[in-house]
């Protein structure tokens, strides 16, 4: 199997990167499986106290690989039922790591890529970063936590703006809305994320993790079960996948070169 996800570790930092730059780091099922493996190993590694999640080649992630959706290659039937009890189509989206994760965002973090960025506790974004629920244009539902995590992070009204319109927002707007925590120069998001990670690593880790977990509980569990919210998103999204397949086919045939190949999402 090709190496679709790169993993390394240095000085307590666990680096996870999507390695499909020729596809703007769009995730297919094989990539999703490798991402799951990477995040599970990070969580189990006692020497790794924080992870940095990024994409190779100047793009974080432009979503799920719609060429696979158009061809019906994503998990279906019994395979999907077993896979989706614990994971989601983009891979680790539903996971809640026990240690902090920083997203280093260059270029596009859109559709499923936006949902993957929401897995991170903090997002460091370059000046050229773009965020959005661009899958709205092609009838592809949010199935990887977008409806669960987006509103608590940026507020319900702003989440509805992105979810209903499908419009992209730039890094300045993302920062003003609270989606972006730090802004970096183009090409230096990873460097800035490492600096932030080292700042966090200076603190006593056990106490920090306890406070982090309490914040997650107050946000997602005390008022409404995290697991139930993910299940509700899935149950509502699965019935429209036929529409998603038609939209993905339209995207692949008419829009890929224009919108992705020329960076004009």
UniProtKB/TrEMBL annotation:
PROSITE patterns assigned to the protein according to its UniProt record, in alphabetical order: ENOYL_COA_HYDRATASE (PS00166)
Superkingdom in the source lineage: Eukaryota
GO MF annotation list: catalytic activity
Family stated for the protein in its record: Belongs to the enoyl-CoA hydratase/isomerase family.
Name this polypeptide is given: Enoyl-CoA hydratase
């Amino acid at each position: 199997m090709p190496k679709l996800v790169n993993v390394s570790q240095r000085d307590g930092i666990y680096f996870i990167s999507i390695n499909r730059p020729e596809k703007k780091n769009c995730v297919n099922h094989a990539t999703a499986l490798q991402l799951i493996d990477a995040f599970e190993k990070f969580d189990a590694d006692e020497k790794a106290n924080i992870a940095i999640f990024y994409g190779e080649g100047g793009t974080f992630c432009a979503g799920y690989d719609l060429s696979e959706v158009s061809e019906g290659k994503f998990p279906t039937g019994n395979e999907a039922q077993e896979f989706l009890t614990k994971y989601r189509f983009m891979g680790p989206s539903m996971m809640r790591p026990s240690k902090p994760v920083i997203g280093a965002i260059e270029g596009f973090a859109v559709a499923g890529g936006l949902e993957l960025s929401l897995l991170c506790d903090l997002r460091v974004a370059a000046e050229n970063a773009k965020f959005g629920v661009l899958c709205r244009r092609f009838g592809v539902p949010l199935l990887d936590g977008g409806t669960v995590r987006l509103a608590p992070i940026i507020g319900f009204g702003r989440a509805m703006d992105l979810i209903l319109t499908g419009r992209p927002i730039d890094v300045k707007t993302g920062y003003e809305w609270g989606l972006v925590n730090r802004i970096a120069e183009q090409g230096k998001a990873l460097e800035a994320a490492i600096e932030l990670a080292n700042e966090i690593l200076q603190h006593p880790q056990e106490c920090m993790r306890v406070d982090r977990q309490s914040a997650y509980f107050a946000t997602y569990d005390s008022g409404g079960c995290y697991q139930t919210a993910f299940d509700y998103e899935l149950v509502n999204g699965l019935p429209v996948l036929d529409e998603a397949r038609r939209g993905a086919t339209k995207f692949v045939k008419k829009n890929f070169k224009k919108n992705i190949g020329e960076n004009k999402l």
